[in-house]
Amino acid sequence: MDTNILLENGTNELEILEFTVCGNYYGINVAKISEIIPYQTVTPVPNSHPSIEGIFMPRDVISRRTAPILVYEIRPFNTD
Q: Which of 21, 51, 74, 75 could make an S-S bridge to 70, C-beta 3.0–4.6 Å?
């Protein structure tokens, strides 16, 4: 019998994608991630909010790229 029940219904388990921004550690539920794509150059958007870095088109769909550092006012981690 297979006992690998990770992420089956009713187990209350969760997969997390971990990442760092400015030395601070964060995580997001992988169920909330539609995909991870390679870095692409963006086209700036005039008069947009400072946290909007620009737009790009993966697969003929316009997407925006935001700067989490500006959205969440993240300060670099200081070890002093």
A: 51
